[in-house]
């Protein structure tokens, strides 16, 4: 991806990027602040994108840009609700299979916990460090439905984007290494009685935060509002003013590990998410 412009309006940059996507052009807007955004395009499409951008600068209020934004916001038409769900699930599976696998695994483990809490926690918590799998498996445990939904929502949002841009192999390496570091931090600083995917989520958040600044061409960035929310949540956990008990050291360990990954991969290019054609979704 090649940076070709900066705009002093994040909204305008996103509007233009959306218009280009509607035209089939690979353009992304990286929002740094509300008053600053960068635009990136695929090298092979750069000439056409720059031509479209010149027209956009002359007539940014033209109806075609708003029309493209409206078109992208509409749901895909299908013969039935069932067909729409099947298409969406297949699309997600083909673009981010590892994200889906860990999502399903967490759901299965949560079901196991409801059926047999003693057995599930006995096998998965870090109560016996000599059994090496336990350094990773606490990430599969969730202690309430809210805990599960919150973590899986973040995992799907960040994990799928990472997998599409950098591949399942790198996501697997990051997930396992961050899980190990975050679990070890919580174990040594507190005790073995914890669980949740939030250490890995904070690792992905740390990656997006740093990668968005060191290598925005990867297409992995996170808004300032979400950065502020995640950091505030982390600090509130350490001050123990929340209504829930949190694995604060796992969060901090995961965050630092994810930031380190972003630095290590600071020169690695991202690739365009795979487009799913109609034939890919046919049975």
Automatic annotation (TrEMBL):
This is Rhomboid family intramembrane serine protease GlpG. It is found in: Membrane. It is an enzyme of class 3 (hydrolase). Keywords: Cell inner membrane, Cell membrane, Coiled coil, Hydrolase, Membrane, Protease, Transmembrane, Transmembrane helix. Residues 1-74 form the Peptidase S54 GlpG peptidase N-terminal domain. It comes from the Bacteria. Residues 32-59 form a coiled coil. It is a multi-pass membrane protein.
